[in-house]
Amino acid sequence: MSVIEMKGIKREYRMETRGKKSKDSEQDVIVRALRGVDFSADAGEFVSVMGPSGSGKSTLMNILGCLDKPTAGTYTLDGIETSASNPDTFAYIRNRKIGFVFQSFNLLARTTALENVELPLFYRRREKDDVKQHNSTRKEQAISALKEVGLAGRMDHFPSQLSGGQQQRVAIARAMVNDPAFILADEPTGNLDTGMTLEIMGLFQQLNNQGKTIIMVTHEPELAAYTKRIITLRDGELVSDKLVKKRRNAVDDLAKWNKDHALLSGAFAG
Question: What structural domains does the chain harbor?
């Protein structure tokens, strides 16, 4: 079953010519960020989106996350055709269908881990047949999400009391708490060291093994090797779509890294 179905996605931006005296828009420069991208992802996939700077990765991510609309083409997300959606439907889709994970974590500094994870539930837009959530229900869902990412003992901690890896785990719990159709991760380990990066990739692999659909934007081939499929963009076009034949295991790589790190530390101590 396709969670994401994109057909002929184009995104063009009109840039005014500097120093132009005429108001005639025919002289404006048209930037074609995406040039007819076809892309689909089934439930339970783990896909990395790659490409050099200017390839269209960020534009595609914005459209996938319903932060922007395509100039042409259709984007169906979990059965909802988004391209012609009104602002209210767009807001509903972002809140209920997509779990966002960003490089910079985007946690509220004066709010505990538990309260950060509860936030999407407070802003949850209800359909007519939805039952209003009680505070206790929201708290239970947030606690469950934090337990799933291994932070049962850090719920009352503030972001400043957590490591970078732990902060990203809180962000992932927040992304999952509404049980979205897929998780959209934008360079999720960009602010983390090697050990924490492997921890987060191990968590993503664990969640994916449980059936979570994950789309990850990255410029690092080493991270893409932990996913199941790699699509590559260049000049606004999808130029490659390949399955990962030799998928790396982040848990095994973390164990090896910890062992090597311990040996190195021991050698310096000696």
Answer: 2-15+29-97+182-269 (3.40.50.300), 111-164+173-179 (no CATH)
